[in-house]
Amino acid sequence: MQSRYQLGVCSWTFGDLPLLEIARRVQALGLDGVELLGDLEAYLPQEAGQILQDFGLSVFSLTPADVDLAHPDPAIRSEAIDYYLRLLDFAAALDRPLVACHGQVGRVRAIASQAEEYTLFVDAVRQVAERARELGLRLVMEVLNRYEAHLLNTAADAIRFLADVGAENVGILLDAYHMNIEESDPVQALRQAGGRLWLYHAADSNRQGIGRGHTDFDGQLAALHEIGYQGPIILECTAPGPDPFTPIKGEDWLYWLETYLRESRDWLLRAGSSIV
Predict the structure, then answer these.
(1) Phi and psi at residue 182, in whole multiples of 5°?
(2) Nearest Cα to Cα of residue 268 among 197, 215, 226, 195
(3) Residue 1 — very low, low, confident or very high, per pLDDT cuts 50/70/90?
(4) What CATH architecture is 7-272?
(5) Which helix (H) or strand (E) is 170 found in, with range?
């Protein structure tokens, strides 16, 4: 039995484990690949690519570091843009996966004004998108909930943002966990994103494994099928406990992470066999 979609996992959810150990565990879980944390100091692209290739794993996408493309301080914003330009070079040397992009995680209000920072965000992403276009790369704007970011919280926000950026190589990343908080109808949000939905993250409403919360994954998978989604499903579960910004929560965090990943994999395999 196979899922209709390739299945991956965000490598950051494995905390500070070495990439070699992460790859071994991901292969053992029967997943197809990873969304690799874009830690430009931890490994060279060729090194990371070879490790993952040795375990038969694809690099579907890159998670960016926590930098601030919308900060009103030009020096901070310039540093963030520089990071993304280096991340694009990393991606270009790694078989050109999708490059995720989002606001600074944890900054939930404007320092200047919402309108000013939105404009700064648009301008910064335009610069990054232009360089991505030159390298043959695509960006995906990740939509986060209001407790993690303040600029793009819904699919409608992302659609408006894409129109303002005006770059054909920029799409949308929707996440079932974040949609559970922000969208009145997550299934409709997926339909609304339509052909600009290039990446989809999955964790249940409590950020645990699929089936442990109240998210309507049957409806969401049907919507993905309806819009002709061709990308992977990237699992982004974390162990229970406080602090959503770290995966390491207590001594048994890795046990719970891998339990959730196995349960999600099995659920998606069963569900995929019924999608026609």
Answers:
(1) -100, -30
(2) 215
(3) very low
(4) Alpha-Beta Barrel (3.20)
(5) strand 170-175
- Radius of gyration of the chain measured on its C-alpha atoms: 18
pLDDT for position 3: 65
Phi, then psi, of 140 in degrees rounded to 5: -130, 125
Position 244 scores a pLDDT of 86
Which is the catalytic residue, given 142, 183, 258, 263?
142
Beta bridge partners of 98: 61
- Kindly report the length of the chain: 276
Q: Answer for the pair 238, 207: CB distance below 8 angstroms, yes or no.
A: yes
**Quick one: angle between helices 155-165 and 114-135, nearest 10?**
60
The reported pLDDT for the residue numbered 276 is: 41
C-alpha span between 229 and 224 (Å, rounded): 5
* Whole-structure pTM value: 0.96
Q: Is 117 a catalytic residue?
A: no
Domain ranges of the chain: 7-272
pLDDT > 70? residue 80 = yes
Question: Using CA atoms, how far apart are residues 228 and 208, in angstroms rounded to an integer?
Answer: 26
Asked about 236 being catalytic, the answer comes back as yes
Q: Which of 182, 236, 258, 263 is catalytic?
A: 236
| Span 34-75, pLDDT tens digits | 999 999 999 999 999 999 999 999 999 999 999 999 999 999
**Structure confidence by residue, pLDDT tens digits, 146-171:** 999 999 999 999 999 999 999 999 99
For residue 108, what are the contacts with CB-CB under 8 A and spacing of at least 6? 146, 147, 148, 149, 150
Segments in the chain forming alpha helices (H)? 19-28, 45-54, 74-92, 114-135, 155-165, 176-182, 186-193, 217-227, 253-272
Q: What is the pLDDT of residues 25-43, one digit of tens each?
A: 999 999 999 999 999 999 9
- According to DSSP, residue 208 is labeled S
